[in-house]
Write a structure and sequence with these properties.
Two copies of one chain form a homodimer. Chain A has 644 residues and is of the alpha/beta class. Chain A contains 24 helices and 20 strands. In chain A, the strands form five sheets. The first copy, chain A, has a six-stranded parallel beta sheet, with helices on both faces. In chain A, strands 1-2-3-7-6 form a five-stranded parallel beta sheet, sandwiched between helices. In chain A, strands 16-18-17-19-20 form a five-stranded mixed beta sheet, with helices on both faces. In chain A, α5 packs parallel to α6. The longest helix of chain A is centred in the N-terminal third of the chain and has 25 residues. Chain A is elongated. At the A-B interface, α6, α8, α13, α16 and α17 of A face α6, α8, α13, α16 and α17 of B.
Chain lengths: 644, 644
């Protein structure tokens, strides 16, 4: 790879010659790959190209070691400029240019329509706009925690500036002094629907300035100006910089220039011929035949994305006594601190916690106190925080995003979806789920945490029954790669006990995903509970058992992955009643029903749970009004037992 | 009600006397109701109180007619200041003060922890921060469409200013000249976790200014200053104003003042006694006994929220011919235009369409051309747009939010959830769902539209099979109150035909939610398809039927509400295979499985669908690689038939 850095004050002739030659090749690549795919986004690729070249050529990156730890990170936020990104990476030696031209937007390779993290040189999969700066914030935080001094570059679209999440990220960067982030806006003044000034008038620079960024306007097609402004940004340790790069959509081919249609349209056959003429290259350079042959040939594999998850010791479980009442969120806070301490021997633990102004409620205060530099108070900016936590999670740090359920799940579902696509490992710790939120009322009732997150392929969902199970689940979650959500209520809960009165999830218990836990054995029907309501279900079941009906009680902590053996055990019962403070449409009851049908089982099933938003009131009164207090559960089970 | 307006330049003595007396009573109400509930948010209620009084006293509202059409709208965005809002409304005559003090945060009334639209005088349920200004934008658009000149006031928190959605709303307001919106920031400088300057440093005024708002800083406890600034805002037709009201959290009770803890904590018994002393009132005024008696008594009902949905004629269905290929999104665009025209006799139709820079792709262009003033290009600002569309939908206008699936569903789930809590009627028209998005790749694959929206109680989900069904479903959706999402792919589809070759969803067909449509009858097993894949499933089934196996094909357009009769018909089959380009975890297959189990049925079931994010490529190649092209479906069905 040709290699430069930010040391020298001015671009030299050698660079400028390389730039001119490479830009010419890249422009051809962009037109060719979109033309061959008959789809893609040439317009923004061509407008971003000159600053892509200056940036990639000067950044501390290495095509031979695409993922070396100390590398600078380039997070391209307007991911539809994939042709531009791929062509620059190819011309720098990350992969053969012909290979990406042949594979672009075809299902047999990683060169997808929007840039993907699997492509060497791409740091974050984007395509949903507005998330790139947040991701770079997460990465910059990771570098700080690891003591690495690296730069972070965030090319962005101009239409994208309309997204509110960008403002959130700007503020986070300034608050934490992430001055090693430089943003570059491809200000070509066009978006899909036309002029940005028609679609949504906006003073882009003023917005950045209002959040404390230094704004520099540059000619986005002049490498000298770009270099000067980027160099200044990199060397300024007082503030992060944004470059507003004045560019021309479709730059390089006159008939494409300033035409919004080429935002998302490839050159057709006639236009391809025009491009050849305008390029000044020989017709041979533009010959499609060798590329078509390459399409037909077997693809060359890319380097493989390395695994980065740190080794984490789970520490020693805490057992909460049988007569103790603790809230699951406190048990979470305790276990989080334990694990952090267990991995901090002589150094800082590879764990970071993100908060959105709810530290006291989500019980991360003890962690904060012990590891203040690993705690990131990100304010009431959930979208940004979820993305930043997600991006940090791929970088060798265990990234915990703690929040209320409605904010950490319903509000930020799409951010977690993107982290999943990025093979992230974020740990979402949500408290105040279910009706346990009590007086806060409908807007705060997170009664969809299973139903919403079930859609994320990589997300493992844990809903613990009591503080002991919470403790063990938190340790499992932190020590295990992958995305997790642990969903906890707000109130103090009784310790679930076995028939001998000992903690059920105590020292003999190991958390295993999928497992169904038989808290009470019986054969007259089974109650299957989830999370916060397990204590109430136990009280109800104990009441019924005293009348002689040998009702069983099981708990399922992982409703979206239930072991087949447990389902088969359930099928032996005359009936089942599921109990949850989650919507019955999509929660435990729905998961069990679908899973039972898939196993070929048919037994009577009553779904107790949330059927409409519940009123505001003390948690106990809300449960009572929804028929989900111990008495209500008992009555429903007994009535159902009689009917079946 | 005591009544003022913005005509007079200065506040008179009468107002000031009323203000002082009422503020004193309200402060007592706030402390009492939170103390009795032992929960709630007194701090911000007390800091917002003075501008609440000036605003509510001068706005064009009427406790006797809380929902008269021309009223000003007051959208309180920091909904946790419910004690302040309720006390002011009560003191203005909306309901008895004692009643709200007694019912606050108890499950037997509408006076919930966060303000709810069911309370007369409350325009929008808030509690999730950052959405109020967007809601006011939607309402202001509604007033414009109805030719009503009204003011819109949006009190907001200062911590809330961190939310990015507010910037999006600011830009929308300026773009559309919604200068009859005035925002007021309760700048008490504290949020739950402490000082706003510690949690997230921010230059609030500069942010608003950067988006084109006029910023006025005022003493938020001086009614004269507040009046002057609000009056200026109301009379300025050149720009919307924001008032930064410098206030004191807990204002009025010295020990509460400037203490972040009182953001969300009620006065305890000792503190209650302190409040009595500090108030200067008689101890009798603060006597809790009569209030406790009132708690025990039956609640007084409030006025009932009126229904506002307009009468909509559905127009005459279009039938796409058997040999025609049309994309569902074009059929949506055509039906939308038809219905608008059918309801525009001599006037503008009560329909508005919101777009996020995708007009050409979501096919709303014809509507825009015909009714340009009813089309709102809101830019790449989906959160704001979803909320604005939701708020407009409760105001007598049919509000259509058209977008790609990933943006209109995954990105904005929480906004739709809030609209549902507000009893909204928004119509979400999503295109590019499923794998039909083709080359755009993983980030754009909306394979969770059923699974995500299933969680919203009021959301009806329609996934039409072809352009004819789309046409009829769109007409049904627009003419019917309630929240709907219609989910459509991108590609041109064949018209689904019956065995005689006529359009199946043609003139004899009426769209009915819940209905299962038997496209081919048979008894050797049933394929049940959804949406875009129905044509491919038909091709597969026809292929199998030619080999002699009498496989049936049904279509389900409303996977989350399936008629029991249809399930019972399915149960007669030796097996079923569900076919969808949605995640198999949460889509049609999962819904049918859960519903079949609930009906007590047990038959073999194969779920064909999306099991992981699919690659980028032409839609056909993506379907092929996922085994969801006609050949893949046919092979899977035949293999499953042999196994069972």
């Amino acid at each position: 790879m040709r290699h430069w850095n930010w040391e020298r004050e001015h671009l030299d002739e050698e660079y400028l010659a390389w730039h001119a030659e490479t830009a010419r090749a890249c422009r051809r690549d962009i037109v060719q790959m979109t033309h061959l795919a008959n789809s893609g986004h040439p317009g923004g690729s061509l407008s971003s190209l000159d600053f892509y070249l200056v940036m990639y050529a000067h950044a501390n990156i290495d095509p031979q070691r695409p993922w070396f730890e100390e590398r600078d990170r380039i997070v391209v936020s307007h991911g539809h400029t994939s042709p531009g990104v791929y062509s620059v990476l190819a011309r720098l030696g990350y992969f053969p240019p012909e290979e990406v031209i042949a594979r672009f937007r075809r299902p047999n390779h990683v060169f997808e329509g929007h840039i993907e993290r699997e492509v060497p040189g791409v740091e974050w999969t984007t395509g949903n706009l507005g998330q790139g700066l947040s991701a770079a914030c997460g990465m910059a935080i990771g570098h700080r925690l690891k003591g690495i001094s690296a730069q972070h570059y965030v090319p962005m679209g101009d239409g994208e500036q309309q997204k509110g999440q960008i403002g959130e990220a700007r503020r986070l960067a300034v608050k934490f002094g992430l001055h090693n982030i430089t943003a570059i806006v491809d200000y070509n003044r066009l978006q899909i629907g036309g002029a940005t000034s028609d679609i949504m008038p906006q003073n882009i620079g003023a917005g950045w300035e209002s959040d404390g960024w230094k704004v520099n306007e540059v000619d986005g097609h002049d490498p000298v100006a770009i270099h000067k402004a980027m160099r200044a940004a990199v060397h300024d340790e007082a503030a992060p910089h944004v470059l507003i790069a004045n560019t021309v959509m479709g730059k390089g081919f006159a008939f494409m220039e300033d035409i919004a249609d080429f935002h998302g349209r490839a050159a057709n056959d006639d236009e391809y011929q025009q491009c050849i003429k305008l390029s000044g290259d020989s017709a041979e350079d533009w010959d499609l035949e060798p590329l078509r042959q390459r399409i037909a040939a077997s693809p060359q594999p890319c380097a493989e994305l390395p695994s980065t998850y740190p080794q984490i010791a789970a520490g020693t479980p805490r057992t909460y006594a049988a007569d103790q009442r603790t809230d699951n969120r406190s048990a979470f806070g305790n276990a989080l601190l334990d694990v952090a301490e267990a991995n901090a021997a002589g150094q800082a633990p590879p764990i970071a916690v993100f908060d959105c102004d709810l530290e006291g409620s989500v019980k991360t205060g003890a962690f904060r106190k012990a590891f203040p530099n690993h705690f990131f108070e990100a304010g009431i900016q959930e979208h940004n925080t979820a993305t930043a936590a997600g991006a940090l999670s791929v970088d060798g740090i265990v990234s915990v995003f703690a929040d209320f359920g409605v904010f950490g799940i319903a509000e930020t579902y799409n951010q977690h979806r993107l982290t999943d696509i990025n093979h992230g490992h974020v740990k979402v710790a949500c408290t105040h789920v279910g009706l346990d939120v009590g007086e806060d009322g409908k807007t705060h009732q997170c009664i969809d945490y299973v139903g919403v997150l079930h859609n994320i392929f990589g997300m493992q969902i844990i809903v613990p029954a009591d503080p002991n199970q919470t403790d063990r689940a938190v340790r499992h979650m932190l020590a295990t790669p992958g995305m997790f959500t642990i969903a906890m209520g707000r109130s103090k809960l009784p310790t679930i006990t076995d028939e001998s009165g000992q903690p059920f999830f105590g020292n003999a218990y190991t958390f295993r995903p999928g497992q169904g836990d038989w808290i009470r054995n019986g054969n007259a029907g089974a109650v299957v509970a989830m999370g916060t309501l397990t204590g109430r279900a136990l009280e109800a079941v104990e009441g019924i058992r005293q009348t002689g009906d040998n009702i069983a009680l099981a708990h399922v902590a992982t409703p979206t992955e239930i072991a087949p053996e447990f389902l088969d055990e359930l099928a032996q019962q005359p009936f089942i009643v599921t109990v949850e403070d989650h919507s019955v449409r999509t929660g435990l009851g729905a998961c069990i029903a679908a899973a039972m049908f898939a196993r070929g089982h048919a037994i009577p099933h009553l779904r107790l749970g949330v059927k409409q938003y519940a009123p505001s009131g003390s948690a106990e009164s809300v449960y009572r009004s929804a028929g989900l207090d111990a008495d209500g559960i008992r009555d429903s089970v007994m009535k159902f037992a009689k009917q079946t």
